[in-house]
Amino acid sequence: MIVYFTASVIGKRYQLPHYLEVIKNIKDLGHKVLSDHIIQTTEDQIKLETKAERVAFLKKLAVWINSSNCVVVEASFPSISVGYEISLARSYNKPVLILYSEGNPPSLFAQSQDENIICEKYNKSTLKAILFEFLTYAQSSNDRRFTFYLTPSMANFLETQARRYRVPKSVYLRRLIEREIKNSHR
Question: Which of 43, 100, 155, 174 has the most crowded Cβ, counting Cβ within 10 A?
Answer without folding.
Answer: 100
